[in-house]
Amino acid sequence: MKTKEMVFAALFAAFIGVLGLIPPIPLGFIPVPITVQTLGVMLAGCFLGKKTGAISVILFLVLVAIGLPLLSGGRGGLSHLIGPSTGYFISWPIAAFCIGFMTEKVWATLKTWKLIVINIVFGVLLVNLIGAPVMAIITHTSVWAGLAGSAAFLPGDCIKAIIAAIIAVQLKSISPIEEKVHNS
Predict the structure, then answer these.
(1) Of 126, 128, 140, 176, which shows the fewest CB atoms inside 10 Å?
(2) pLDDT, tens digit, for every residue of 14-59?
(3) How far is 145 from 142, CA to CA, in rounded Å?
(4) Quick one: where is this thing mainly located (predicted)?
């Protein structure tokens, strides 16, 4: 891994942490709050690409695991990664990788709408399809109840997917993906 990729991974891990300063919105019917941090996960994938994007999210989760209060609401520590939100946290590096993979595939013909679709499929649907069943298992409820409860995340997550796509397209010229395309 090049130094520049390491710096980008660290910057995006920090960016996801900064998004954690925005307080979570607790929902009364499911134990997982609404946060803005999934915006950082989507941006990591569509700006950094598959490898560096996934590494940045893994780095963020490692920093949380060792106790840094980077989760929304100033939470940190291994105990906060294990609970109803576990499936969502597990899905974040997978989502960043998949978003990065698909973004790299369409990079030559990149359009905002393509990134919106990629972010919705992998940053919204995939995250919820992994997170909700794990939440249901941990809370001893049915998977269908978990999926139904996670529907509350869909409007906000779709807005985050649009925002991430717009930002990534605007920053396309300075993206590490652009450098990879020109060097290959």
Answers:
(1) 140
(2) 999 999 999 999 998 899 999 999 999 999 999 999 999 999 999 9
(3) 5
(4) membrane
152 burial via Cβ count (<10 Å: 0-12, 13-18, 19+): middle
Residue with tokens 């996934």: 54
pTM of the entire structure?
Answer: 0.95
17 CB neighbour count, 10 Å cutoff:
20
* 3-state secondary structure at position 25: strand
Distance CA 104, CA 5 (A): 15
Nearest to 124 by CA among 169, 86, 149, 155: 155
> What does the block give as tokens for 56?
């940045």
Place of tokens 């700006």: 47
